[in-house]
Write a structure and sequence with these properties.
It is a single chain. A six-stranded mixed sheet has the order 5-4-1-2-3-6, with helices on both faces. The protein is α+β, with helices and mostly antiparallel strands and about 140 residues long. A hairpin with a 2-residue loop joins strand 4 and strand 5. Helix 2 packs antiparallel against helix 3. About 30% of the residues lie in helices and about 25% in strands.
Length: about 140
């Protein structure tokens, strides 16, 4: 079955509908075709954050996570039953398949902030292309 390529499917099969819903919500956030979409998100007790990234050729466009997507990420994090909750989910969509890669806290070097970890992940995924972030509320033109 196509789907959770980065995960051991048998262990994560009960979560497959949640991971599929994450992909559908990512597509809704970017307004359509999710092909080549990359989600970087982090989660912990009562919080999640990150962004959806789409390669537009000369630059990468960042889309903020919707409230529904944050809820789905939290659901995946809370339902994880491998004994240790993950910190990072990297979610790639290629065509009609997705690859969800979970990164656990002990796999991450100490001292980096979420923004720094995300920057490293984006560089690994997209190289040195600039990232276009949406304006934050209150930013002047």
């Amino acid at each position: 079955m196509k789907g959770i390529c980065g995960l051991e499917f048998d262990k994560h099969e009960p979560l497959y509908p949640v991971y599929a819903a994450i992909g559908h919500e990512c597509a809704a956030v970017v307004g359509g075709n999710p092909d080549e979409l990359y989600l970087y998100a982090e989660a912990g007790h009562g919080w999640s954050g990150g962004g959806i990234f789409v390669d537009e050729g000369r630059a990468i466009r960042c889309f903020p996570l919707s409230r529904d997507l944050c809820s789905l990420i939290m659901e995946a994090w809370e339902r994880e039953n491998t004994g240790q909750p993950w910190l990072v989910i990297e979610y790639d969509i290629k065509g009609t398949s997705f690859d969800a890669n979970l990164i656990y806290p002990d796999e991450i070097g100490p001292g980096l902030t979420m923004a720094e970890r995300q920057r490293v992940a984006l560089r690994r995924r997209f190289g040195r292309k600039p990232v276009l972030y949406p304006p934050y509320p209150g930013d002047a033109g």
